Structure to design on (459 residues):
């Protein structure tokens, strides 16, 4: 067991009460839009503080309200790929990619960097600025940026949702490659076809609660989208 | 040929020095307060906002008088600072203080707006990438707010250059010490045969203001280019 989440959070009239464990591999948080998936990963990242509960990862405590403890996001070592990329517009692609490593004060590792740049096919973009890149290119760079901080865990929040079908088909193989690299991932999606192909464990989220943990049998919804 | 007398030069150079020092010293405080107003919710925020904006709406003479009471030799703050060797009363430093206070609301306003325009989602991304609060600010918020910071500095500089009421009330109108361009123009217009000197200083004031505007436009464009275009 690597990630253990047991949190409660009141957001206006919406209540989140989620308890689940995510083993190694790719755990999908699957459920309809507005079911609280993003809030849950934000709590794992440390961007949102739970009202109550505990989050632990590989033997370390990330959050524990009984001890009034919350590790700040910049000390959690958790990479986060946002739905909307969030590349820094005032930096080049290369500077974006190097940002996490610099902030975490990790020594440069040229071979690892070259490998990830190759894995994501972004070598030709290094001198560009994010402003004039395609959505698919931006999302690949966001994935590379999160990987290059050498995260213990990678959170992906609907990484394909803002992309059209062609772009989705462009990015998805890279995500599958990541899974095969054994980077532990939490993959948020409301898309059954996507989840079916990438997840090793599925946590079904409904209305702020965990409705089931298991395999593909949880993907009951007939998903009309013909992807991939 | 257009040439300034040595008294006029003194006033011009003194004005520039006062405006540059006022803007430079006000800047870090302005950025800090603008950030707090843009990003934090706390009890008394409206009051802080009001106090910062007060010099904009108060008669400048009132601001100058308050500075005189607090920062004069016998003022609460002035007496304390005088023990440390910092004297404002009837010195150019006092003129810089008055100009800085008068320009402060314009500085804070421009910077606050530009910080509010910075997407907090980018700050969150920076946070998850290992930057602590200060580094988030230094590497994301500040560079993205740069065009607004430049605009605020120019507004503050221009206000400092043109400040009259608060300065003359606080530190008087002493040639070579506190007589800025504005005060010198005023003095010349009150003097028989001072018209030519006043006109020359007016031209200088217009020229400096135009140069400041053009320079800020150029800087803001460069900063904007770095953000959005290129490569």
């Amino acid at each position: 067991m690597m990630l253990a989440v047991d949190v409660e959070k009141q957001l206006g009239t919406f209540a989140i009460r989620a308890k689940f464990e995510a083993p190694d591999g790719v755990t999908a948080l699957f459920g309809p839009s507005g079911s609280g998936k993003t809030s849950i990963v934000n709590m794992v990242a440390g961007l949102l503080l739970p009202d109550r509960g505990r989050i632990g990862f590989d033997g370390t405590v990330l959050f524990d309200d009984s001890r009034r403890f919350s590790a700040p996001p910049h000390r959690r070592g958790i990479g986060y790929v946002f739905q909307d990329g969030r590349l820094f517009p005032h930096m080049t692609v290369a500077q974006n990619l190097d940002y996490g490593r610099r902030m975490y004060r990790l020594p440069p590792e040229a071979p690892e960097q070259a490998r990830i740049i190759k894995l994501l096919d972004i070598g030709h973009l290094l001198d560009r600025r994010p402003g004039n890149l395609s959505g698919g290119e931006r999302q690949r760079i966001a994935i590379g940026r999160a990987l290059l901080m050498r995260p213990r865990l990678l959170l992906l929040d609907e990484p394909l949702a803002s992309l059209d079908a062609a772009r989705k088909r462009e990015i998805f193989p890279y995500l599958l490659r990541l899974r095969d690299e054994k980077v532990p991932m939490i993959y948020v999606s409301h898309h059954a076809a996507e989840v079916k192909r990438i997840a090793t464990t599925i946590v079904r989220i409904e209305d702020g609660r965990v409705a089931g943990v298991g395999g593909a049998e949880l993907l009951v919804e007939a998903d009309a989208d013909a992807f991939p | 040929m257009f040439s300034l007398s040595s008294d006029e030069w003194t006033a011009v150079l003194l004005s520039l020095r006062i405006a540059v020092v006022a803007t430079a010293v006000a800047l870090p405080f302005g950025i800090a307060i603008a950030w707090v107003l843009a990003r934090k919710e706390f009890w008394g925020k409206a009051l802080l906002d009001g106090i910062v904006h007060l010099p904009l709406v108060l008669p400048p003479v009132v601001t100058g008088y308050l500075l005189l009471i607090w920062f004069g030799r016998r003022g609460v703050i002035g007496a304390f600072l005088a023990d440390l060797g910092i004297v404002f009363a009837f010195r150019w430093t006092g003129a810089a203080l008055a100009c800085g206070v008068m320009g402060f609301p314009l500085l804070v306003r421009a910077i606050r707006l530009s910080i509010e325009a910075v997407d907090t989602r980018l700050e969150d991304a920076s946070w998850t990438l290992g930057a602590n609060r200060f580094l988030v600010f230094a590497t994301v918020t500040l560079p993205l707010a740069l065009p607004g910071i430049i605009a605020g500095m120019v507004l503050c500089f221009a206000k400092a250059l043109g400040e009259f009421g608060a300065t003359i009330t606080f530190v008087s109108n002493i040639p070579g010490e506190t007589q800025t361009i504005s005060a010198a123009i005023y003095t010349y217009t009150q003097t028989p045969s001072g018209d030519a000197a006043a006109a020359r200083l007016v031209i200088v004031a217009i020229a400096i203001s135009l140069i400041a505007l053009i320079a800020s436009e150029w800087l803001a464009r460069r900063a904007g280019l770095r953000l959005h275009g290129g490569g």
User: Anything to note?
Assistant: DSSP finds eleven helices and no strands in chain B.
